[in-house]
Amino acid sequence: MPLKKPMMALTLDDDDDDDAGENMVAPDGRAPAGRSLRTQASYKLSDTMTFAQGGVVLRGSAGMVGDDGTQETDIELADLHKVRQLGAGVSARVYLVEHRRTGEQFALKELTAMADTDARHMAVNELKIAHNAHCPHLIRFVDAFFNEGKISIVMELADGGSLDDVIKRAGRIPEPPCQGVGVSMLQGLQYLHRELHQVHRDIKPANVMIKAGVLKLSDFGISKQLESTAAFATTQVGTTVYMSPERMLGEEHSYASDIWSVGLTVLEAYLGEMPFPIAGSFMEQVSLVVDGPAPAPPPGSSAEFEDFVAQCLQKDANLRGTVTELLSGPWLINADDGEFGRWLQTL
Protein backbone atom coordinates (compact mmCIF):
# COMPACT_ATOMS: atom_id res chain seq x y z
CA MET A 1 0.00 0.00 0.00
CA PRO A 2 1.48 3.41 -0.93
CA LEU A 3 2.46 5.71 1.90
CA LYS A 4 0.57 8.95 1.66
CA LYS A 5 0.79 11.41 4.50
CA PRO A 6 3.94 13.51 5.01
CA MET A 7 5.57 13.44 8.39
CA MET A 8 5.74 17.08 9.35
CA ALA A 9 8.20 18.52 11.83
CA LEU A 10 8.06 17.45 15.46
CA THR A 11 10.67 19.30 17.48
CA LEU A 12 11.47 18.42 21.06
CA ASP A 13 13.33 21.08 23.01
CA ASP A 14 14.23 21.79 26.63
CA ASP A 15 11.85 24.66 27.37
CA ASP A 16 11.10 24.61 31.09
CA ASP A 17 8.22 27.13 31.09
CA ASP A 18 5.88 24.69 32.81
CA ASP A 19 2.86 27.00 32.96
CA ALA A 20 2.81 27.29 29.19
CA GLY A 21 2.09 23.63 28.76
CA GLU A 22 -1.03 23.25 30.86
CA ASN A 23 -3.55 24.05 28.11
CA MET A 24 -2.36 21.16 25.96
CA VAL A 25 -3.58 22.65 22.67
CA ALA A 26 -2.09 23.59 19.32
CA PRO A 27 -1.08 27.24 18.79
CA ASP A 28 -4.23 27.91 16.75
CA GLY A 29 -6.33 26.99 19.80
CA ARG A 30 -7.59 23.67 18.46
CA ALA A 31 -6.85 20.33 20.08
CA PRO A 32 -4.91 18.01 17.78
CA ALA A 33 -7.83 15.53 18.05
CA GLY A 34 -5.90 12.34 17.57
CA ARG A 35 -3.99 13.28 14.47
CA SER A 36 -0.31 12.48 14.31
CA LEU A 37 1.87 15.02 16.05
CA ARG A 38 3.80 15.13 12.80
CA THR A 39 0.78 16.23 10.76
CA GLN A 40 0.18 19.39 12.77
CA ALA A 41 2.21 21.59 10.37
CA SER A 42 5.58 21.93 12.07
CA TYR A 43 4.58 21.82 15.72
CA LYS A 44 7.18 22.21 18.39
CA LEU A 45 6.70 20.06 21.49
CA SER A 46 8.55 21.36 24.53
CA ASP A 47 9.32 19.51 27.74
CA THR A 48 6.18 21.07 29.19
CA MET A 49 4.06 19.58 26.41
CA THR A 50 3.47 22.97 24.78
CA PHE A 51 2.73 22.85 21.07
CA ALA A 52 4.18 25.80 19.16
CA GLN A 53 5.02 26.44 15.53
CA GLY A 54 8.50 26.12 14.12
CA GLY A 55 11.25 23.56 14.45
CA VAL A 56 13.06 21.04 12.34
CA VAL A 57 12.17 17.70 10.84
CA LEU A 58 12.94 14.65 12.95
CA ARG A 59 13.30 11.58 10.80
CA GLY A 60 11.78 8.49 12.35
CA SER A 61 12.37 4.95 11.20
CA ALA A 62 8.90 4.24 9.80
CA GLY A 63 7.75 5.07 6.31
CA MET A 64 9.60 6.61 3.37
CA VAL A 65 11.59 9.81 2.98
CA GLY A 66 10.06 12.16 0.45
CA ASP A 67 11.86 14.46 -2.01
CA ASP A 68 11.60 17.32 0.49
CA GLY A 69 13.34 15.30 3.19
CA THR A 70 10.22 14.72 5.29
CA GLN A 71 9.14 11.32 6.48
CA GLU A 72 5.98 9.78 5.06
CA THR A 73 3.60 7.52 6.92
CA ASP A 74 0.05 6.29 6.42
CA ILE A 75 -0.65 5.61 10.10
CA GLU A 76 -3.40 7.50 11.92
CA LEU A 77 -4.44 6.86 15.51
CA ALA A 78 -7.97 5.98 14.41
CA ASP A 79 -6.50 3.23 12.21
CA LEU A 80 -5.11 1.39 15.25
CA HIS A 81 -7.42 -1.14 16.90
CA LYS A 82 -6.62 -2.07 20.50
CA VAL A 83 -6.39 -5.85 20.75
CA ARG A 84 -5.43 -6.18 24.41
CA GLN A 85 -3.48 -4.52 27.20
CA LEU A 86 0.11 -5.66 27.52
CA GLY A 87 1.09 -3.79 30.68
CA ALA A 88 0.42 -0.81 32.90
CA GLY A 89 2.29 1.61 35.14
CA VAL A 90 1.49 4.65 37.27
CA SER A 91 0.98 7.04 34.33
CA ALA A 92 1.19 4.74 31.30
CA ARG A 93 -0.50 1.76 29.72
CA VAL A 94 0.81 -0.38 26.87
CA TYR A 95 -1.50 -2.06 24.36
CA LEU A 96 -1.15 -4.49 21.51
CA VAL A 97 -2.71 -2.65 18.55
CA GLU A 98 -3.41 -3.69 14.98
CA HIS A 99 -3.54 -1.46 11.92
CA ARG A 100 -7.07 -1.90 10.56
CA ARG A 101 -6.11 -1.79 6.88
CA THR A 102 -2.77 -3.57 6.79
CA GLY A 103 -3.10 -5.93 9.75
CA GLU A 104 0.36 -4.91 11.00
CA GLN A 105 0.72 -5.03 14.78
CA PHE A 106 2.45 -2.53 17.06
CA ALA A 107 2.84 -1.71 20.74
CA LEU A 108 0.98 1.48 21.70
CA LYS A 109 2.14 3.25 24.87
CA GLU A 110 -0.36 5.77 26.25
CA LEU A 111 0.95 8.39 28.66
CA THR A 112 -1.28 10.81 30.55
CA ALA A 113 -0.19 14.18 29.23
CA MET A 114 -1.58 16.02 32.26
CA ALA A 115 0.45 13.92 34.70
CA ASP A 116 2.99 15.56 37.00
CA THR A 117 5.97 17.47 35.65
CA ASP A 118 8.41 14.58 36.02
CA ALA A 119 6.14 12.27 34.04
CA ARG A 120 5.81 14.84 31.25
CA HIS A 121 9.58 15.23 31.03
CA MET A 122 9.97 11.45 30.93
CA ALA A 123 7.49 11.20 28.06
CA VAL A 124 9.23 13.84 25.99
CA ASN A 125 12.62 12.32 26.70
CA GLU A 126 11.37 8.96 25.48
CA LEU A 127 10.35 10.59 22.20
CA LYS A 128 13.74 12.29 21.93
CA ILE A 129 15.61 9.04 22.37
CA ALA A 130 13.30 6.98 20.19
CA HIS A 131 13.60 9.44 17.30
CA ASN A 132 17.38 9.24 17.42
CA ALA A 133 17.88 5.56 18.19
CA HIS A 134 19.00 3.44 15.25
CA CYS A 135 20.31 0.25 16.82
CA PRO A 136 19.05 -3.35 16.39
CA HIS A 137 19.13 -3.80 20.17
CA LEU A 138 16.84 -0.85 20.94
CA ILE A 139 13.07 -0.92 20.40
CA ARG A 140 12.15 1.08 17.25
CA PHE A 141 9.94 4.17 17.29
CA VAL A 142 7.13 4.29 14.70
CA ASP A 143 4.85 7.28 15.34
CA ALA A 144 3.38 9.57 18.01
CA PHE A 145 -0.05 11.15 18.58
CA PHE A 146 -1.77 13.54 20.97
CA ASN A 147 -5.40 12.75 21.74
CA GLU A 148 -7.85 13.28 24.63
CA GLY A 149 -5.18 14.40 27.08
CA LYS A 150 -2.85 11.51 26.26
CA ILE A 151 0.36 11.14 24.32
CA SER A 152 0.36 7.87 22.40
CA ILE A 153 3.69 6.45 21.25
CA VAL A 154 3.63 3.71 18.64
CA MET A 155 6.61 1.36 18.86
CA GLU A 156 7.55 -1.86 17.13
CA LEU A 157 5.90 -4.87 18.74
CA ALA A 158 8.16 -7.25 20.63
CA ASP A 159 6.40 -10.43 19.55
CA GLY A 160 8.43 -12.61 21.89
CA GLY A 161 7.51 -10.77 25.07
CA SER A 162 10.21 -9.95 27.58
CA LEU A 163 13.26 -11.64 29.04
CA ASP A 164 11.29 -11.81 32.29
CA ASP A 165 8.63 -13.88 30.52
CA VAL A 166 11.28 -16.26 29.18
CA ILE A 167 12.90 -16.71 32.59
CA LYS A 168 9.53 -17.57 34.13
CA ARG A 169 8.76 -20.01 31.32
CA ALA A 170 12.16 -21.70 31.16
CA GLY A 171 13.01 -21.61 34.86
CA ARG A 172 16.57 -20.54 34.09
CA ILE A 173 18.73 -19.83 31.05
CA PRO A 174 21.98 -21.79 30.46
CA GLU A 175 25.29 -19.97 30.23
CA PRO A 176 25.75 -19.92 26.40
CA PRO A 177 22.43 -18.13 25.70
CA CYS A 178 23.13 -15.90 28.71
CA GLN A 179 26.21 -14.75 26.77
CA GLY A 180 23.83 -13.71 23.98
CA VAL A 181 21.77 -11.79 26.56
CA GLY A 182 24.89 -9.99 27.79
CA VAL A 183 26.13 -9.10 24.30
CA SER A 184 22.73 -7.78 23.18
CA MET A 185 22.17 -5.63 26.26
CA LEU A 186 25.68 -4.20 26.14
CA GLN A 187 25.44 -3.42 22.42
CA GLY A 188 22.20 -1.54 23.09
CA LEU A 189 23.86 0.32 25.95
CA GLN A 190 26.90 1.07 23.82
CA TYR A 191 24.65 2.98 21.43
CA LEU A 192 22.81 4.76 24.26
CA HIS A 193 26.02 5.71 26.06
CA ARG A 194 28.25 6.63 23.10
CA GLU A 195 25.85 8.00 20.52
CA LEU A 196 23.03 9.48 22.61
CA HIS A 197 24.84 10.14 25.92
CA GLN A 198 22.01 8.43 27.77
CA VAL A 199 21.83 6.50 31.02
CA HIS A 200 18.97 4.00 30.77
CA ARG A 201 18.50 3.68 34.56
CA ASP A 202 15.80 1.00 34.48
CA ILE A 203 17.44 -2.12 33.08
CA LYS A 204 15.73 -5.28 34.28
CA PRO A 205 14.40 -8.45 32.63
CA ALA A 206 10.94 -6.91 32.13
CA ASN A 207 12.49 -4.09 30.04
CA VAL A 208 14.52 -6.38 27.79
CA MET A 209 12.13 -7.21 24.97
CA ILE A 210 12.33 -9.93 22.31
CA LYS A 211 11.57 -9.38 18.63
CA ALA A 212 12.03 -12.41 16.34
CA GLY A 213 14.55 -13.81 18.80
CA VAL A 214 16.53 -10.55 19.03
CA LEU A 215 16.87 -8.88 22.42
CA LYS A 216 16.09 -5.14 22.54
CA LEU A 217 16.23 -2.64 25.40
CA SER A 218 12.98 -0.76 25.92
CA ASP A 219 11.36 1.83 28.20
CA PHE A 220 13.62 4.83 27.83
CA GLY A 221 11.03 7.08 29.49
CA ILE A 222 13.08 7.44 32.66
CA SER A 223 16.40 7.85 30.91
CA LYS A 224 18.34 10.98 31.76
CA GLN A 225 19.99 12.82 28.91
CA LEU A 226 23.55 13.74 29.84
CA GLU A 227 25.13 16.85 28.40
CA SER A 228 28.52 15.13 28.24
CA THR A 229 30.23 11.96 29.37
CA ALA A 230 31.33 13.78 32.52
CA ALA A 231 27.78 14.65 33.58
CA PHE A 232 25.86 12.80 36.23
CA ALA A 233 22.22 12.06 37.02
CA THR A 234 20.96 12.40 40.56
CA THR A 235 17.25 11.56 40.39
CA GLN A 236 16.21 8.25 41.93
CA VAL A 237 13.79 6.50 39.58
CA GLY A 238 13.51 2.99 38.24
CA THR A 239 13.05 -0.34 39.93
CA THR A 240 14.63 -0.28 43.38
CA VAL A 241 15.93 -3.84 43.54
CA TYR A 242 17.99 -3.37 40.36
CA MET A 243 19.52 -0.08 41.49
CA SER A 244 23.28 0.20 41.93
CA PRO A 245 24.65 0.97 45.43
CA GLU A 246 25.34 4.61 44.55
CA ARG A 247 21.76 5.08 43.39
CA MET A 248 20.44 3.37 46.50
CA LEU A 249 22.35 5.94 48.55
CA GLY A 250 21.13 8.86 46.44
CA GLU A 251 24.62 9.65 45.21
CA GLU A 252 25.53 10.96 41.77
CA HIS A 253 25.66 8.22 39.17
CA SER A 254 26.35 7.75 35.50
CA TYR A 255 26.85 5.00 32.91
CA ALA A 256 28.33 2.58 35.47
CA SER A 257 24.91 2.31 37.14
CA ASP A 258 23.59 0.60 33.99
CA ILE A 259 26.48 -1.89 34.13
CA TRP A 260 25.42 -2.95 37.64
CA SER A 261 21.88 -3.63 36.35
CA VAL A 262 23.23 -5.61 33.38
CA GLY A 263 25.16 -7.85 35.76
CA LEU A 264 22.08 -8.45 37.92
CA THR A 265 19.88 -9.12 34.88
CA VAL A 266 22.27 -11.65 33.32
CA LEU A 267 22.78 -13.38 36.66
CA GLU A 268 19.02 -13.50 37.25
CA ALA A 269 18.57 -15.14 33.84
CA TYR A 270 21.17 -17.76 34.76
CA LEU A 271 19.82 -18.42 38.27
CA GLY A 272 16.15 -18.19 37.40
CA GLU A 273 15.56 -15.77 40.27
CA MET A 274 16.59 -12.31 41.42
CA PRO A 275 20.13 -12.55 42.91
CA PHE A 276 19.24 -10.23 45.81
CA PRO A 277 16.34 -11.15 48.12
CA ILE A 278 13.38 -8.77 47.89
CA ALA A 279 13.32 -6.87 51.18
CA GLY A 280 10.24 -5.64 52.98
CA SER A 281 11.26 -1.98 52.90
CA PHE A 282 13.48 0.36 50.96
CA MET A 283 15.93 0.72 53.85
CA GLU A 284 16.23 -3.06 54.17
CA GLN A 285 16.89 -3.26 50.43
CA VAL A 286 19.58 -0.58 50.74
CA SER A 287 21.25 -2.59 53.51
CA LEU A 288 21.21 -5.78 51.42
CA VAL A 289 22.70 -4.10 48.35
CA VAL A 290 25.11 -1.65 49.96
CA ASP A 291 26.31 -3.61 52.98
CA GLY A 292 25.78 -7.22 51.94
CA PRO A 293 28.05 -9.30 49.68
CA ALA A 294 27.65 -8.93 45.94
CA PRO A 295 25.98 -12.00 44.42
CA ALA A 296 28.00 -14.36 42.23
CA PRO A 297 27.33 -17.30 39.90
CA PRO A 298 26.99 -20.67 41.67
CA PRO A 299 29.70 -23.36 41.70
CA GLY A 300 30.08 -25.01 38.31
CA SER A 301 29.88 -21.76 36.36
CA SER A 302 32.79 -20.87 34.11
CA ALA A 303 35.57 -18.70 35.51
CA GLU A 304 34.97 -16.24 32.65
CA PHE A 305 31.31 -15.86 33.68
CA GLU A 306 32.29 -15.36 37.31
CA ASP A 307 34.73 -12.63 36.23
CA PHE A 308 32.07 -10.91 34.09
CA VAL A 309 29.58 -10.79 36.97
CA ALA A 310 32.28 -9.61 39.38
CA GLN A 311 33.19 -6.74 37.04
CA CYS A 312 29.55 -5.68 36.77
CA LEU A 313 28.76 -5.94 40.48
CA GLN A 314 31.65 -3.97 41.93
CA LYS A 315 30.28 -1.85 44.79
CA ASP A 316 32.60 0.99 43.77
CA ALA A 317 31.26 2.35 40.47
CA ASN A 318 34.76 3.43 39.43
CA LEU A 319 35.92 -0.20 39.52
CA ARG A 320 33.14 -1.61 37.33
CA GLY A 321 33.90 -2.74 33.82
CA THR A 322 32.86 -0.44 30.99
CA VAL A 323 30.73 -1.55 28.05
CA THR A 324 33.84 -1.78 25.86
CA GLU A 325 35.81 -3.74 28.45
CA LEU A 326 33.00 -6.21 29.03
CA LEU A 327 32.32 -6.79 25.33
CA SER A 328 36.01 -7.44 24.74
CA GLY A 329 36.47 -9.50 27.91
CA PRO A 330 37.00 -13.28 27.93
CA TRP A 331 33.34 -14.17 28.53
CA LEU A 332 31.92 -12.17 25.62
CA ILE A 333 34.77 -11.63 23.15
CA ASN A 334 33.67 -14.58 21.02
CA ALA A 335 30.00 -14.58 22.03
CA ASP A 336 27.26 -14.47 19.40
CA ASP A 337 24.24 -12.22 20.05
CA GLY A 338 22.17 -14.74 18.06
CA GLU A 339 22.86 -17.54 20.54
CA PHE A 340 19.90 -16.55 22.70
CA GLY A 341 17.49 -16.64 19.75
CA ARG A 342 18.66 -20.12 18.71
CA TRP A 343 18.27 -21.41 22.25
CA LEU A 344 14.82 -19.81 22.47
CA GLN A 345 13.65 -21.93 19.55
CA THR A 346 14.34 -25.08 21.59
CA LEU A 347 11.86 -24.16 24.33
From TrEMBL:
Q: Which residues bind ATP?
A: 109
Q: Where is this region: Disordered?
A: 1-34
**Which residues are in the Protein kinase domain?**
80-332
Listed A to Z, the keywords are: ATP-binding, Kinase, Nucleotide-binding, Serine/threonine-protein kinase, Transferase
Specify residue ranges for compositional bias: Acidic residues. Answer: 12-21
Q: Which reaction does it catalyse?
A: L-tyrosyl-[protein] + ATP = O-phospho-L-tyrosyl-[protein] + ADP + H(+); L-seryl-[protein] + ATP = O-phospho-L-seryl-[protein] + ADP + H(+); L-threonyl-[protein] + ATP = O-phospho-L-threonyl-[protein] + ADP + H(+)
Keyword Kinase attached: yes
- EC number of the protein: 2.7.12.2
Q: Which domain of life is it from?
A: Eukaryota
Name-wise, this protein is: mitogen-activated protein kinase kinase
A single Gene Ontology MF term assigned here is:
protein serine/threonine kinase activity
Of which family is this protein a member? Belongs to the protein kinase superfamily. STE Ser/Thr protein kinase family. MAP kinase kinase subfamily.
Q: Which organism is it from?
A: Prymnesium parvum (Toxic golden alga)
